[in-house]
TrEMBL record:
Chain sites annotated for binding [4Fe-4S] cluster 2: C167, C171, C174
Protein name: tRNA-2-methylthio-N(6)-dimethylallyladenosine synthase
Gene that this polypeptide is encoded by: miaB
Oligomer status and interactors: Monomer.
Cofactor(s), by name: [4Fe-4S] cluster
Catalytic activity: N(6)-dimethylallyladenosine(37) in tRNA + (sulfur carrier)-SH + AH2 + 2 S-adenosyl-L-methionine = 2-methylsulfanyl-N(6)-dimethylallyladenosine(37) in tRNA + (sulfur carrier)-H + 5'-deoxyadenosine + L-methionine + A + S-adenosyl-L-homocysteine + 2 H(+)
Length: 456
């Protein structure tokens, strides 16, 4: 379909995008939004006011499938859209995995597009509007350059910047390599140019995205060049750099050095361990041992004292024993994580781990999960106590949902920070700006205090 024809069909239509899953999905949603904007569509505040509803999906855990089915089913009870015809589209990892088969599970979906085909979304939706057909496009051998698509960022001060797509690790529990494909790195020059443009546009913070940023460049240059990328991105003048995800087996000494030496790289690292048991790590195909992970933590802390460490941990991997779990528990206590994302293992068809039988009762797994959560709550609380009495720079993101006069933002260590809006200040004075906050209260998941000085 010609672009002018697509615009004729879509101009004036309203759209709403709901995103599930990882930061890469958030970035993909911003690109889909930008593409629809470019054809004259208008963003709606809710599904009720939208002619186009897009679900960007994740399939890492089984609950994601049920959540999608529930969301699609709820669309049936909505009042008619502004145009009288609503198109429902599903993208992301579930769409890539299931393709046309998704049509049998959700009978009111009109468009399905995969992780490699964002650039075709507008055309697929326009075709569905034009003749009422159900459109499916989930090729595995086509890689849209999503970074070249128009961009509708959710906020002006932060940007997601993908540096690579895909994954080569094939952890035995993970479906991501099957729905995102193999690793494909952008050039260093392309990423640096993009960040430089963002700086000129007023962006204060970027998050570099990849399923494993530590292997950035291996496919293109023959060896990882993530450390070099960090240094060059730091030279653009960007004030804050974060990145995710970071695989322990590929975190090189030169990357740790770059993190320590580039002032704009924030003192925070998400380093997924998944398990504290070497036996389970081998079953997971993680390719490092408990001892190697803890040695890596020591080396990181030696170069970056006070760094905030976060992680992912899976409880109940098939065959996990109480001894294995106790090793995970002790590792979490030893590391002293500032934050952890804890999950009960979710069986994913098509992954090697899905073939492993496990007789462990669900109540045993739940008990282990609850014990781990208590340990993480303790380490997070202890970590936050270090901020008491200190003045820290906070990038203000908005206001607390519970109190519209309470600022909410992030510290360099990615801690959530609250502070009352000073008298005479307006939201425009502070959102997207950095303010110093004197911390007088430290809880498990947040810090609070008072603003000291002017926003900058």
């Amino acid at each position: 379909m010609e672009p002018n024809r697509i615009r004729d069909v879509l101009v004036g239509k309203t759209y709403y995008i709901r995103t599930f899953g990882c930061q890469m999905n958030l970035h993909d949603s911003e690109r889909v939004s930008g593409l629809l904007d470019s054809f004259g569509c208008l963003e709606a505040a809710s599904p009720e006011g939208a002619d186009i509803v897009v679900f960007m999906t994740c399939c890492v855990r089984e609950a994601a499938d049920q959540r999608l089915y529930g969301q699609c089913s709820s669309m049936k009870s909505l009042p008619p859209s502004p145009s009288g015809h609503r198109v429902i589209a599903v993208g992301g990892c579930i769409a890539q995995r299931d393709g046309e088969g998704l049509l049998t599970n959700v009978d009111n979906v009109d468009v399905i597009f995969g992780t490699h085909s964002l650039g075709h979304v507008a055309e697929l939706i326009a075709r569905s509007f034009e003749d009422g057909s159900r459109q499916v496009f989930t090729p595995e051998d086509v890689q849209d350059e999503a970074t070249s698509l128009p961009w509708h960022r959710a906020v002006s001060y932060h940007a997601w910047v993908p540096i690579m797509t895909g994954c080569n690790n094939f952890c035995s529990y993970c479906i991501v390599p099957y729905v995102r494909g193999r690793e494909k790195s952008r050039t260093i020059e392309e990423v640096v140019d993009e960040v430089g443009g963002l700086v000129r546009a007023g962006v204060r913070e970027v998050t570099l995205l990849g399923q494993n940023v530590n292997s950035f460049g291996r496919d293109r240059y023959g060896h990882p060049r993530f450390a070099e990328l960090l240094r060059q991105v730091g030279d653009t003048g960007i004030e804050r750099i974060r990145f995710t995800s970071s695989h322990p087996k590929d975190l090189l000494p030169e990357t740790i050095d770059a993190m320590a030496e580039v002032p704009s790289v924030m003192p925070q690292l998400h380093l997924a361990v998944q398990s504290g048991s070497t036996r389970i790590l081998k079953e997971m195909n993680r390719r490092y041992t408990r001892e190697q992970y803890l040695d890596l933590i020591d080396r990181i802390r030696d170069r970056i004292p006070g760094i905030a460490l976060s992680t992912d941990i899976i409880v109940g991997f098939p065959g996990e024993t109480e001894e294995d779990f106790l090793e995970t528990l002790s590792l979490a206590q030893t590391v002293g994580y500032a934050q952890a994302f804890t999950f009960i293992y979710s069986r994913r068809e098509g992954t090697p781990a899905a073939r492993i039988e496990d007789p462990t009762p669900r109540e045993v797994i739940q008990n282990r999960f609850d014990r781990l959560v208590k340990v993480i709550e303790g380490t997070a609380y202890d970590f936050n106590q270090q901020a008491l009495g200190r003045t820290i720079p906070v990038l203000v993101e908005g206001f607390s949902k519970k109190d519209s006069h309470m600022l909410q933002g992030k510290s360099p260590k990615n801690q959530t920070v609250h502070a009352p809006l000073p008298e005479g200040w307006t939201p425009e004075d502070v959102v997207g700006h950095i303010v110093d906050v004197e911390v007088d209260r430290a809880r498990t998941w947040y810090l609070s205090g008072t603003v000291a000085g002017e926003p900058r």
